[in-house]
Amino acid sequence: MNAFGIASYGIAALSFLVLTLLLITAWRGRQQGGHLIVASAVTALWAGILAVQSYTGHVPVLVIYLAEAIRGGAWLLALVAVAGIAAPTWLAIAARGLCVLLLAAAVVLPVLEHYGVAMVNPTLLLSRAGLAVALLALILLEQIYRNSSQVARRSLKYFIIGVGTLFAYDLFLYSQTELLHAVSIDAWTSRGILNAFAMPLIAVAARRNPEWSLDVFVSRQIVFYTTTVLVIGSYLTVMALGGLYVREIGGAWGNVGQIVFFAGAVVVLASLVTSAALRRHARVFISKHFYRNKYDYRIEWLRFIRTLSSTDEEDVGRTALRSIAQIFTSPGGFLFLRDETGKKFLPYAAWPMSIDSLGLPASLSADDDLPQFLAGKQWIIDTEEFRRAPDFYGNIAMPPWLLDKEQLRIVSPMLQLDRLVGFVVLYDPPPPFELTYEDRDLLKTLGRHVATHIAQQDADRRLAESRQFEAYNRLTAFMMHDLKNSVAQLKLIVANAPRHKHKPEFIDDAMETIANAADRMTKLIEQLRGSTSADRHVAADLRELAQQAVARCSYRAPKPQLQAGPPTMVMANAERLSVIIEHIIRNAQDATSETGSVSVSIGQNGREAELLVEDTGAGMDADFIRNRLFRPFDSTKGAKGMGIGAYQVREYIRLLGGDVEVQSSPGQGTRFAVSLPLSQGQDATAAAPNSNAVV
Question: Carries keyword Zinc (predicted)?
Answer without folding.
Answer: no
